[in-house]
Predict the 3D structure of the following.
Amino acid sequence: MTSLRVLAVASEIYPIVKTGGLADVVGSLPVALGSCGIETRTLVPGYPDVIKALPTAEVLLHWPHFRGGPIRLLGGSLGDLDLLVLDAPHLFARPGNPYVAPDGKDWPDNGVRFAALSRMAAEIGQGAVRSFVPDIVHAHDWQAGLAPAYLHYANGPRPCTVMTVHNMVYQGKFPHEMLHTFGLPPESFTIHGVEYYGMISFLKAGLQFADRITTVSPTYAIEIQGDEGGMGLGGLLRERSQVLSGILNGIDTSVWNPETDPHIAARFSAKELESRAANRAALQRRLGLDPSTDALLLGVISRLSWQKGLDLLLENVPTIVNEGMQLALLGSGDPDLENRFQAVAKANAGRLAVLIGYDEALAHLIQAGADALVVPSRFEPCGLTQLCALRYGGVPIVSRVGGLADTVVDANEADIAGSAATGFKFGPVTGETLAGALRRASNSFHDKQVWRKLQLNGISTDVSWCNRASQYAALYHDVVTARRNQAH
Ligand code: ADP
Ligand code: GLC
């Protein structure tokens, strides 16, 4: 196959700036695509940390006026990643969270900021950087959603476009008065354009105008065509179902590798799973949990938001305590959930440990030391933590939704002895069904042979990007071929 050039566009990228799994995906997929003959460069905003990470970047463009100020487009590499950086100090020279101001509210000019990112993607798509003219512009989430719209309305040759939705909740909605400021033509403000209940929706723009739409698991691709999962855009997605598909996320198996992980107490592999015990003990010590070896130690690493269903875990504190389990939770987000988790930890010292914050090293130790990882999400486009758990010999306990349903094989749905079971799934998503799954896990935990089988099945599950990147590569080839055939 001939090689293709892809411009990925995203508002965050691991390891420089990350608020969630989007950054992990954007920071690891391009490397895997490289092995499939796809050359990817990723356009990201020039936040201070990004500029700092690329001290020797080359200046590719220098424009005195672009969306309210002078900008430069920088090109540089970080490890195996090739980056293009929109250095627009008036939009992005702000430290901290990429979307939220120090007062805790979204930056008031987020629309202008990410419209500028998308516009630059469209400019590159149409040849603004002579050394890199992409065949495809691949937009991730609402922040890049206007790129397919700009390219749809552009004159002259344009690349193919792919829109990937990582989460339907975040739609990037702005007042219709901004249409002109965003540089969108008046005719785009219709139900078949960027209009969404009287506002402009960046995500809708991307879903409407991209040549192909993907999301991050096959089950989520079905869920978002429904009224509930579609979050207002289900009808549009049903209409465009011919061009919509779900491709599972992978994880970076060099960052998440229990044999080399620098953050854990003892490295291990499938052959020496016993070494996990040292991580378990280190985790208990670190978090002040009792040093029990026969309590099922549950781990959670999560944003604390309604999506993640962790209020259902709070409902289950009596189950956890009465059934002799332990909990190690690392998370941050909704202040009410933060307070409630801290309160139950205080009331159950030694049994429940809660760390509020963002801590990459501790996340690795939890993956290496917890017996089971709980992900009780109400919806989950893909989810990455259950993939890391599988790789680290942790047994996932997950709700049967989205990518969680697609990546975990339930112990009841298969006969364990000879089967591929890797964890426990529950549904519908309620406190009661979660309690049932916790109890089932606890019972299996006390049968060492069964537990070992679950762990080994998990470790041998392919959670890498390898196969999944080739699905993106096939999609890219498909969309480019379809365009060529249309032209002839
Ligand atoms: P989402 O993107 O919806 O937050 P994912 O499971 O796709 O969920 O990705 C979450 C990513 O963020 C994972 O890499 C996970 O390890 C990481 N993460 C989440 N919360 C924390 C935290 N408090 N500390 C460290 N890492 C975290
Ligand atoms: C979103 C989703 C999560 C997914 C991640 C990366 O943040 O909530 O399920 O794994 O994007 O695609």
In short: The longest strand covers residues 38-45. The pocket of adenosine-5'-diphosphate (ligand 1) is lined by residues 20-21, 24, 301-303, 330-332, 358-360, 363, 382-385 (CB under 6 Å).
